[in-house]
Amino acid sequence: MDDFRGDVYMATVLLERNRWTVEKRPSFRVSDWLERFADAGFDGIELWENHAALCAPEELAALESSALPIAIFSSYAALDDACAAERERVADLAGRLRARRIKFNFGSDPSQAEAYVRNLKEWRTLLPQDCALLCECHPGTIAEEPAGAAELFGLLDGIPVQVIVHAFFLPADRLRESFKCHGRAVTHVHVQVVDEEGARQRLDWDADLVKERLHILREEGFSGSLSLEFTGGTAAPDEDIEALFRNAVADLDFLRDALEEERLTGQ
């Protein structure tokens, strides 16, 4: 398949040591890294929400003027009724940053499915028309199961929703099920590999797994984009931002080579 050569983005959460703390305060300025991301060869950025929502005005201005596209705004705004103001703020940020897509999650309470859908439809009206909805069908949410997510999307009165898959984390049969249920709506991959103990790995540390899942993606007709979400050293006791970036660049290089190899194999 000639179009199997997707853009690869740097997810800024990969470098963020405070990603899982209660406060989730940014520990670095993304603008300081934009040139390095571009020089490494990334096609754009998946921006962690708090890198824009909790930054200083001058940092937000720098992100607004970024030459490297903010391809995805990774939002954690809840779809609960009580969170309308948060969704409004996020919609404003997505517009200011000219984000092409906004990542969102459904909540975890099945009894609130109707409210989640209603609020997502309302949120869509606040977003720029050229900013697509991108659902991370995350474990623990009511969209975790592909068939269940498809049912939710069917309640949106024709509003299109794109889908993220965790291609290197999900079992292979679950990955194929995502394509069976969502088809061409699967447009993005969050890239992370873990070992048997759950520690994040560099891609070349489990090369066979990565190549197997890329083969599945090609077979299923995937032609979308990918974000490096985590890498070797993520959440390790000696986690270091420079080491994480070096590993992310190594992952980028490995992924580019593996994508090209799979593309050529499929011709």
Give a structural overview.
It is a single chain. This protein has 267 residues and is an alpha/beta fold. It is 39% helix and 16% strand. It contains nine helices and ten strands. The protein has helices at 34-40, 50-53, 57-64, 84-96, 113-126, 146-153, 172-182, 207-219, 241-265, and strands at residues 8-11, 44-48, 70-74, 101-104, 132-136, 161-165, 186-191, 193-194, 200-201, 225-228. It has an eight-stranded parallel β-barrel with strand order 1-2-3-4-5-6-7-10. It has a two-stranded antiparallel ribbon with strand order 8-9. Helix 5 links the parallel strand 4 (101-104) and strand 5. Helix 8 crosses helix 9 (241-265). The longest helix is centred in the last third of the chain and has 25 residues, at 241-265. It is globular. The mean pLDDT is 96.
Q: Which descriptors would you attach to this protein?
A:
267 residues; globular; 8-stranded parallel β-barrel; alpha/beta; two-stranded antiparallel ribbon
